[in-house]
Amino acid sequence: MDEQPEPAQDTSAEAGGPLDRRAELSEFLRTRRARLKPEDVGLPDFGRHRRVPGLRREELAQLAGVSVAYYTRLEQGNGRNVSAEVLDAIARALRLTDAEHAHLTHLAKPKQHKKKQAAPTQQVRGALRQLLDTMDGIPAYVVGRRSDILVWNRMAAAVFGDWALLPPQERNWARMTFLKPEYRELFVEWEQKATDIVSYLRMDAGCHPDDPRLSALVGELSVKSEEFRRLWATHDVKEKSHGVKRMQHPLVGRLELSFETFRLIDDQEQSLITYHAEPGSPSAEALRLLASWGTDATRAGTQSTTPQA
What we know:
Mean pLDDT: 85
Structural class: alpha+beta
Low-confidence stretches: 1-11, 300-309
Distance between the termini: 59 Å
Radius of gyration: 22 Å
Helix content: 40-55%
Number of strands: 5
Largest sheet: 5 strands, antiparallel
Number of helices: 14
């Protein structure tokens, strides 16, 4: 018999308050189960009307080799004493990606942190700052927790706007993507950029549900952006990786740049992001022009894409 459909829960944190880990676990499992159909996992579908989307709890429990009661407790947010083997089985049954599997583990078996211990301000090593400065012609920056932009080089400022003109708390990809119209114009595939940013924040929230700054950011964006609320409710998660970004730059027009993400070994919560164009392409010529204009390009690009502070 189908279980009754459950109303979607709003797991957005109030400004500064912790995210509800149990609600996060419940909604994550429910949304992953909802996206699977019986035929996707080799189960018969007898064509009966289903009152919930996707697999039923008993079907998922059967695939994972656990009792329905056990899985139901887990989906209700009770991950206490769940074993890694059971989580692995559920992850396989739900066909989770590696990032989703890691997120499930963070939610169900959170690491113990000292309560009321404020997260230290992230610091970037001096040698890494010097490396950014030497990457002439390569837009590059370091991003940290909560999608905060920590440091960047001259070419990154020429492409994305001079973040030095923004207050430190506004140097954040999520805040800029959803709250600044100029970034909607900059990214040709803005919806994909927005989806990726929210997926990164979800991963961060799973690792640090008690981070007040992250909770405040989620709360602010949930209030100010309907699009953020919609994407946040999907509970999708993703790790930073590599790909292509297409942009419409106010000075040089269309840019198609490949990006690579390098997670730092000594600080797994910092990543170096670099952008490059295919040699001989129009985008490579556009980057060369931006580099030759130097600070003039940065200033002009800032006037077009980033409001003055």
